[in-house]
Design goal:
By secondary structure, the chain is an alpha/beta fold. It has six helices and eight strands. It has a five-stranded mixed β-barrel with strand order 2-3-5-6-8.
Amino acid sequence: MNKSHFLSVPFNPVDLEKLNIGDLVYLTGEIIVTVGLPTHKRIKEYIESGDPLPMDFHNGMLCQVGCYVQEKNGVLTSRYINPSTSTRFEPYLPKIIETTEIKAVGGKGGVGPKTIEAMKKYKCVYLSFVGGASALTSEAVKEVIDIQWDDFIMQFRLIRLRVEKLGPLNVGVDSKGNCLYTNLKNAASKKLENLMQELNQGRQS
């Protein structure tokens, strides 16, 4: 039976080991968001050149999530957050997971095979946002803490947010490398195979 977990960020790695695919997660703490491919490319370039990143990723969460921030009277306010498809970031995520010590990636649609391998090796998880629920998830954002790389458009910048009970997020890949999307695909393929066999038998009878 799938469970619900209320976790704090930065994560305690022991808590992440208790997660299984299909579980629901609610997060309180600080997360880093950006929807930019160029941003992920720059993170990887910083890693490879040995330059320090402008934010601490240790035991944290990096989300492929767009965030629009508005400034009024010197106060930064998040107007909305909206997840993007994480598979687009496959060229960058394995290296980021390997070197920054992040413990969770967030987005929608799952991640690629190399990212899953890195997650299994470095005990990282993938947390999937509910598609079409931007209004719900946006309510969980309580504060814009920091914004870096302002040469990018707003949604591509590195943004650190404070959230309270952000969720429900679905565990798409657990720290053991189990993948919900792979399991569903295999199950669907098996059902299709069985259906085709039944149809062929029906034609022959």
